[in-house]
What does this fold into?
Amino acid sequence: MSTIQRIALVLTIIGAINWGLIGFFQFDLVAAIFGNNTAITRIIYGLVGIAGLINLGLLFKPNEEVERSPEPRSTR
It folds into this structure.
């Protein structure tokens, strides 16, 4: 997993936590910290959205551990 994918995954997790807080408690953590409908809040929401799109590619990436064929053993 590349560094960009790891950063995107962290942003996606932050977004998921925020949506969980909104769903369960009607509390928007990002808006509470940075203000409601400010430029920085919109940037954060945009970055989380882009991160979700980047992580969408992980759904179609083959699992390297499963796809890797076993190497032949030496019979010496």
About this structure: The mean pLDDT is 88. Residues 3-59 form one domain. Residues 3-25 form the longest helix (23 residues). Residues 20 and 26 are 9 Å apart (CA to CA).
